[in-house]
Amino acid sequence: MGTVILGLIIVCIYFLPTVLANFNKHTKSDSIFIINLFLGWTLIGWVIALAWSVSENNRDKTKKV
């Protein structure tokens, strides 16, 4: 039972950038998911996906010219 809970915690941390991108309604959440899925196992890929997911590019805000 403990290994299942540990596995779920690891998966949640691994996909944290994807969850944040979807929560923040990021316009590139699909791309963030792909980067997170295939490059998240590397620390650099995970950090890039995390930084991208919290960037100021979301669907709710309009561009100001």
Describe the largest sheet: none
Shape: elongated
How would you state the average pLDDT, rounded?
91
Helix and strand pattern: HHHH
Q: Report the sheet-strand fraction.
A: under 5%
Number of strands: 0
* Number of separate domains: 1
Termini Cα gap? 55 Å
Any idea what the radius of gyration is?
14 Å
Helix count?
Answer: 4
Question: Poorly predicted ranges (pLDDT <50, ≥5 residues)?
Answer: none
- The helix content, as a percent range, equals 55-70%
Structural class: mainly alpha
What does this protein look like?
- The chain is built from four helices and no strands.
- With 65 residues, the protein is an all-alpha fold.
- It has one domain.
- It starts with a helix and ends in a 12-residue tail after the last helix.
- The model has no long low-confidence stretch (mean pLDDT 91).
Kindly summarize this structure in a few lines.
This protein has 65 residues and is mainly alpha-helical.
